[in-house]
Amino acid sequence: MTASFVMELSRQLCMKMRKNKKTQFSSLPASTLGLEIHFYIPEIRHLEYIKGTYTAEELCVTAAKKCTISPLCHNLFALYNDSTGTWYSPSHEFNIKEDSGIKLHYRMRFYFKNWHGTTEGESPVWRHCLNKLRGQSPQKTPEGTPLLDVGSLEYLYFQCQHDFQTGKAPLRAAQSEAEQHEIENECLGMAVLAITHYAKNFDIPFSAASREMSYKRFIPESLNSNIKQRNILTRIRISNVFKKFLAEFNTQTVGESNITCYDLKIKYLATMEGLTSRMGSELFEPVSLAITQEKELSTGGYYGYCNQSQLQTKCQNQNLEPSSDMQVLVTGTTGISWRQKPAAVPVMPKDKSKSKKSKQDEKQKNNRNKETGDGWVLFCDFHMITHTVIKETTVTIMRQDNKKMELQLLSRAEALSFVALVDGYFRLIVDAHHYLCKEVAPSLVVQNTETGCHGPICTEYAVQKLRQEGNEEGTYILRWSCTEYNFIIITVVCHESDHFNIQYKNFQIEVDSDGYRLYGTDTSRPSLKELLDHLERQCLHTDNLQFQLRRCCPPQPREISNLLVVTKERASICQPTKHERELCIFHRIPKEDIEQEEHLGVGTKTNIYLGTLRVKNEEDEDAGYTSFQEVKVVLKVLGSGHRDISLAFFETANMMRQVSHKHIVLLYGVCVRHQENIMVEEYAQLGPLDVFIRRQQSPLSTRWKFQVAKQLASALSYLEDKKLVHGFVCAKNILLARDGLDEEEGEPFIKLSDPGIPITVLSREECVHRIPWIAPECVKNPSELSVAADKWGFGTTLWEICYDGEVPLKEKKLTEKERFYEAEFQLAIPDYKELAELMTRCMNYDPKKRPFFRAIVRDLDVLEEKSPFIKPCPIQPVDPTVFETRFLRKIRELGEGHFGKVELCRYDPRGDRTGEMVAVKSLKPENGEEQSNNLLKEIEILKALYHENIVKYKGISQEEGGKTIKLIMEYLPLGSLKEYLPRYKSQTSLGTLLSYCIQICRGMDYLGSRNYIHRDLAARNVLVEKEGMVKIGDFGLTKSLKENNGYYTVKDENDSPVFWYAPECLTQCKFYLASDVWSFGVTMYEIITYCDSSKSPMTCFLDMIGRAQGQMTIVRLVNVLQDGRRLACPESCPRRVYELMRKCWEHTPERRITFKRLIEELSILQQHHQQNSL
Predict the structure, then answer these.
(1) Which pLDDT score is estimated for 28?
(2) Could you give the angle at the alpha carbon of 65 between the alpha carbons of 60 and 68, nearest 5°?
(3) What is the pTM of this model?
(4) Is residue 1095 a contact partner of residue 1129, using CB atoms and an 8 Å limit?
(5) Tens digit of pLDDT for each residue in 580-638?
(6) Is the Cβ–Cβ distance between 557 and 431 less than 8 Å?
(7) Using 50, 70 and 90 to split pLDDT, how confident is the model at 545?
(8) Does residue 365 have a pLDDT over 70?
(9) How confident is the model at residue 877, as a pLDDT?
(10) Could you write out the DSSP letters of every residue in 194-227?
């Protein structure tokens, strides 16, 4: 060893000893007063606050300004307390006093690996920008703007340098001695980059920087301590090798390649990502962790989910701290993951038998598995999150499919920190204008939501949005400035005088403590809303253009802009195109595989049946044989009469086949049966929600109602994310699969059914009839149907749920409903303020101002926790004569005529098969306006009649907004006399027959007293209620007499019952009260003959006149009657009874017997018969 070498060694040791002494006697740090915010850039002095109240968000804005960080990157940063290891949410309030002694650091918290795009094999991270093509290549290349601005990059560099040196970003664990050696070399390489950057940044010669700065200042303290423990020769060798490498790097690499400070920062940060452990991620060790779904704990293998009790038991058995069992990891590029904490892995001893290549392969494999392996289970990425809930120290992350992660943390501060982390990443990746949890939401984001202001989006996105909104003059966007923190920009569409050239003008609003001022003017107001209200009433001028602010375009859910960060390739996150969504592809079900069963009710132009579907058993099919299982389904049948709207029907089916959500009914497929189109859907046994709620004897709990509302909002949020529109959200389209009334079975479980026929093919009357569920803009123009319409429908449905299934506006006529929307009225809202505000926001008449469904889900969760008391809505009087078509369940057909048909239905509004049986008369679909008017007249007549021998009117049922009406009458189960008498001839005496005749006369006398003529009295239209009791029915041909002349003239008699008509009806088409007397005589003849078809009036008259067709039949019949020929006396008919018939058949109306006289005569005959029978 030479003397010079020994001397040099001694000199270095002396210098080292002097430095250590200086360090030992250096002054202690001064105590902190109030609150201090420190920075990692050496040149920036810390901020001091002695007293006052500030939110973390306000402090971060001041810090960002001091560090020249733009508003675009401001939300990447947060405040951190080094001493407690606590991150503060933006909403955290600091109440500062002089003795508070709070020392914070301003740090970038939200970090995305490979944001620089230099790491091979990983997706680059960038901000969204408008799509562009590079060159002429037909293949699109993902292209975006950089994540960080200059100020953010500068700050991140110094922050990471600090973390690297202090060990806050720990080095990755080495798996071998060889890898440990490589890690040390990489750390020295980091020191080279740092010293080089320092020299270039301060324009210091590299030789001087090399002499003045030791590499030990720029490597991790742990490595520095490790090197100190090595012998002095090794330390000197490391120092000399480092100096040599630093010189070569600066002379060759930096000098020849023109490396800049920017390049050095990027290289430093990129190298640090691979060198440290989980850079940009945060690890939490909760007290307990549970992954659950629908109130049921999931089960798994080794990495099973633990609830609190399980974990405590486990800790007692294993003597572990509660937090040492489970871990949760949050990263910007992956999302939220969890695992059971692994045991410590010892460093592998050096294995000399391994070749160098095998060691390199092993290292690469270890690096690849570092993040994806290690037992981490992905719970969700940020796109899947709907909202978060925090209760004391417990945090719940809700997923779109209602799966949730619930973790209890050690403190409330840690819980808020965790929620703020998830919330911040969500706004950076998914939706820049939505917050998951109000407790941690930045006040500016809440304010922007209320005012409709965007974050700092760039001009290109603002202009693109205005184009998408139609470029209407005066349409504008509010957005915060990308460069200045205290300016809001109004970007507005301006049309030049020729209306062909469109310009976009920007105006600035200055924001200060006094309020909001239009920059460059004296116009100011205390709030942004007041300023905009003022400006919208003014005529604004700029560059020889004048215009008015007309319509603001607020942010929309998941709106793409430069505020969002893309963490995956565009192909993997893109939504289906509009063409793909509209492409109709169905699973076609053979008609042989479905069996139609009970009629469940009527939808819009559809009939709904319970059915059975045969489904192949896939397991058996795989085994080589075929078997089937039967599944209960709902069949929605579009009849052949509505073939013109089958395309719209299939549009609904197409929408339903694109969804897969537990709270939306499953579409099995579509079946075409003859000329009917059928949707085959999942069956929910408890039926529609509104029916179930009204069926309950006591009101359902508020918690039950909110659970149902949350499930509905969850399903609609899913549709909103998929850019699908339901179109008819209402309580009757929500089906209940589980009632949730029994605590053991869990909470209620709903399924949103299909919307039925789209409103685009409905008439205006049908659309108005759907008020208040249909959105106002859709009444004006059904093609305006959008997700915003579902939000309106949700608001109305929430009203229904809260008010126990009450039907809003049920007593209003169509014109009144129209006026309700025209005047922009609101439904009566609950007393509970927050719930009322939510309903009002959903039912905002401006579609753009309705809240996102994610926000609705979040707010409902908060409301549920408060468990508000909802004061019952005053019960509206129910009109018993109005029957809802959907509750008419067809049993069978009772009869059919030329124009209409009568069906037996059960009216079952409770949905429990206890409803009353009614007869429903309706017109056939092909009938026109004249027949509809006739049915309306029949309804009006029947409404005016009330007599024990006249069929009772019960009410009407309307469809298609009142265009289609059905008549509801009482059902008489024994049918008409024409059917009854032949069947019960042996049990029916002459006295009973005479009793029937008397009852008919009483009913007809009452009818005449009301100035009506029946015109279709026959045995087929007399119904039997019970043995000995009959009622007159079918008033389809009934007319009202004119008071001045006592008869009614018919213009068209193509379908008249001519063989029951009096001569004056056949010859003059005039009908008198006496004309009904003639018809009664014929009816009496039918009754006395027991309605024997061989002796029917038509058969007897045809025998008299011979066979003829059309008008010739009437001509011959008239001739026969004028000749005095009448129906012959039936066999076994008493002479006096036949004489009464003949009195009814006098040729001139004036000479015919009256119904009053008939009642008297028939009563005498009945008494005489009874006396003789005795």
Answers:
(1) 41
(2) 120
(3) 0.75
(4) no
(5) 555 556 788 998 999 999 999 888 889 999 999 998 776 655 555 667 889 999 999 99
(6) yes
(7) confident
(8) no
(9) 62
(10) HHHHHHHHTT--HHHHHHH--GGGGS-HHHHHHH
Residue 727 CA to residue 757 CA, distance in Å, equals 9
Residue 145 DSSP code: B
**End-to-end CA, the chain:** 155
Catalytic residue among 1016, 1034, 1076, 1103: 1016
Look up tokens 């001739």; give the residue: 1119
Nearest to 652 by CA among 575, 725, 600: 725
Does pLDDT of 939 surpass 90? no
More confident residue, 7 or 714: 714
Residue 691 token pair: 């029916």
Domains and CATH numbers, the chain: 35-115+148-275 (no CATH), 281-342+372-436 (2.30.29.30), 444-573 (3.30.505.10), 583-682 (3.30.200.20), 689-866 (1.10.510.10), 880-971 (3.30.200.20), 973-1174 (1.10.510.10)
Q: What is the mean pLDDT of residues 271-296?
A: 86
Higher pLDDT pick, 505 / 745: 505
Q: Please, what sign has the CA dihedral across residues 1133, 1137, 1141, 1142? A: positive
Classify residue 1025 by its DSSP letter: E
Q: Which residue has the tokens 């098969």?
A: 913
Helix/strand/coil for 469? coil
Alpha-helical regions (H) of 947-1096: 977-983, 990-1009, 1063-1068, 1073-1088
Which residue in 201, 158, 136 sits closest to 67, CA to CA? 158
Q: Which of 1152, 983, 995, 982 is nearest to 1076 (CA)?
A: 1152
> In terms of DSSP H, where are the helices of 300-346?
308-318
Judge contact between 125 and 117, C-beta under 8 A.
yes
**Is 82 one of the catalytic residues?**
no
**Nearest-10 crossing angle of helices 177-201, 150-166:** 140
Rg (CA), the chain: 43
Please indicate whether residue 324 or residue 494 has the higher confidence score (pLDDT).
Answer: 494
- Compute the distance between CA of residue 505 and CA of residue 508 in angstroms, rounded to an integer: 10
* 462 membership: H or E segment, kind and range: helix 459-468
Task: Give the C-alpha separation, 331 to 323, whole Å.
Answer: 20
Quote the pLDDT of residue 1114. Answer: 84
Going from the C-alpha of 1141 to that of each of 40, 791, 1135, the distances in angstroms are: 116, 69, 10
Question: Regarding predicted confidence, which is higher, 137 or 247?
Answer: 247
- Enumerate the known binding-site residues for ATP: 894-902, 921
In 3D space, the residue among 108, 205, 98 whose CA is nearest the CA of residue 151 turns out to be 108
What the block records as the tokens of 600 is 């469940």
Q: What does the alpha-carbon distance between residue 51 and residue 59 come to, in Å, rounded to a whole number?
A: 13
Q: Are strands 326-331 and 281-284 parallel, antiparallel or unpaired?
A: antiparallel
- Quick one: which H or E segment has residue 177? helix 177-201
Residue 942 predicted with pLDDT over 60: yes
Using N-to-C axis directions, what is the helix angle for 1073-1088 and 1155-1173, rounded to 10°?
A: 20
